[in-house]
Amino acid sequence: MVCGLSLCGALSNVAIADEAAKFYKGKTITLVIGFSPGGGADTFARFFQPFLAKHMPGKPNVIVQNMPGAGGIKAFNQVYNTGAQDGTRVILTSPSHTIAYLLGKKNVRYDLNKMRWIGTLTQDTSACVANKQSGIRTIEDAKNRTIIFGSTGKSSSTTQHVMILESLLGYKFKITHGYRGTGAVRLAMQKNEVEAVCSFWASQALGPQAQDIKSGQLVPIVQMGKKKHPVFGNAPSAYDLAQNEEQKTIMKVVYGKTELSRPFGAPPGTPDANLDGLRRGFWSAVNDPALKARAKKSRIIIDPLNAADTERELKAILATPKALLAKTKKLVGG
User: Fold this and answer.
1) CA-based, 20 to 30 A from 277: which of 14, 138, 253, 259?
2) 296, part of any domain
3) Domain count along the chain
4) Same-domain check for residues 155 and 300
5) CA 101, CA 17: separation in Å to the nearest integer?
């Protein structure tokens, strides 16, 4: 067959799309979450689940599987190293996966450079919040008293964000580890087991926990975005609290990763045609007017990146100088 370049390219794309549709027809895609129900990752996954199913070639079933442990690393290790490598298992990752890999955590058994990225669901802003009954109103209170934080694991951002503030700025903190997701930490806050938690997102403050913010039950005490988010009110930026440029640079190593908040990835063995189907399904879903309308109604921030832009952003993060990573690792107890 003789054809022009544009026609041949179009025919090739159609053939790949047909191959993905044939593969996924009658299949089930498992969307793995490294945290318990009720947290930020779980909220996004369950919001996105029906739209991904709607737009995937072949119309497969899509289910969400929670696999908490080690600040989300257990799930990433499992998806990367075991089980199906054919595009029927994907993972919604978190910033803690990226920073754990960067800092060379011993329990990390995955390579972000080899993941097959599908796209990013949102770019979000993180903060730390305290419960109302603690009496804490700002991170500056930790100069005079100890704030007790709840954490999902030593390798998670719920720990790392606290330790950077403590190590660089000398605040008085105590961290209680082992909660199976940020939802469990918030429950512990209600019971006064702990007083505060980090990795609380603007999307949560605008959506599922909007009433808790509005009522003052949850009090934003510091935020980690490069730009302050209005939903966190007058809570200071961590960068504004830094005392010099080196401290700001170290903060960017940890906090800067949080802005690439919810990347979707498939394991390294995923075939090209099936990956292409996942990428097409993802991008069609995030641009679905029905998804946008539901996100607006639910006050969930959908700010997506396609696969190419996700890979570019991750490559920039992974290019962080080794000397800076070594200093950061020491500060967060790595």
Assistant:
1) 259
2) yes
3) 2
4) no
5) 33
Q: Is 330 a member of any domain?
A: no
With a CB cutoff of 8 Å and minimum separation 6, the contacts of 220 are: 127, 128, 129, 200, 205, 213, 231, 232, 233, 235
Alpha carbons 56 and 51: distance in angstroms, whole number: 9
The tens digit of pLDDT for each residue in 219-268 reads 999 999 888 999 999 999 999 999 999 899 889 888 877 778 889 999 99
CB atoms within 10 A of CB 215: 9
How far apart CA 97 and CA 151 sit, in angstroms, is 15
Domain limits for position 155: 126-257
Read off the pLDDT of residues 10-57 as tens digits, 9 standing for 90 and up. Answer: 445 555 568 999 999 999 999 999 988 887 889 899 999 999 999 999
Amino acid identity of 299? R
Distance CA 78, CA 109 (A): 9
Give pTM, 2 decimals.
0.77
The pLDDT tens digits of the residues spanning 93-102 come to 988 788 889 8
